[in-house]
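Hello Y.,

Per our agreement to keep a running log of every chain we model this quarter, I'm adding this entry. I've kept the format consistent with earlier entries: sequence first, then predicted structure.
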Amino acid sequence: MASGNDANAARRARATRSAGLLPLVVGLASAAALTGAAYFTVDSASCGSPAQYIRHDSHVELVGGCVDGANLPATGTSSGSGGHGNYNP
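Predicted structure for the entry above:
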């Protein structure tokens, strides 16, 4: 009778391990799918040249990349330092 209980306990332990393995496999598969989708998205984005930030005397300028300055909203000028949109190195 004792060996029957041991067999049931071993069977339950195996079932618990396999049930715990399923979330791990699903998590790894979804991470791989999201990584693949991100890589495909970045790879298919066509950009002429990579963007660079160039620092001048009093400001930083973004040069190159996929950003078209004509599509950006106009910003107002703010006086003094620390205003919205100012770059303070």
